[in-house]
Design brief:
single chain; 137 residues; mainly alpha; flat
């Protein structure tokens, strides 16, 4: 962990802030390639999510404010739900119908509401970890 405001007085964690440029660039590059190759919308949404995670995390690590922490952490949940969809619906023909996106939407909303009310970062870490495990299991 780096010291806060060590390099600049207006950026809390400089290197954590700068490192998010990688997510922003990869997200934009993925959006460009997805549009260029006319990939399905789910891939556009996934790459936009990566871009948005990078922007949110950059804002959080630059300021260390709670509202910016939400901008960092909630897009991680939303984008991982998109990735879960991409992994489970891996064919051109839809396998689960509208049930899967509705379920994932409700999962994301439930996590968001609980996190806003409870404000416990461990809750976010557990939920995020379980979603990531779903994509690799």
């Amino acid at each position: 962990c780096e010291h806060n405001y060590d390099v600049f007085v207006f950026i809390a964690e400089l290197w954590n802030t700068v490192s998010n440029l990688v997510l922003i660039v990869f997200g934009l590059f993925g959006l460009y390639r997805s549009l260029n190759q006319k990939l399905e919308t789910r891939f556009l949404i996934g790459y936009f999510g990566l871009f948005f995670i990078g922007v949110g995390s950059l804002c959080f690590h630059a300021t260390l404010r709670w509202d910016m922490q939400l901008l960092d952490e909630l897009p991680m949940i939303y984008t991982t739900c998109v990735f879960v969809y991409c992994v489970l619906e891996d064919q051109k023909s839809i396998q689960y119908g509208p049930i899967l996106p509705i379920f994932l939407f409700l999962v994301a909303i439930s996590i968001t509401i609980t996190y806003l009310l409870w404000q416990n970062p461990i809750f976010h870490q557990i939920c995020y970890g379980l979603l990531v495990l779903t994509t690799v299991a």
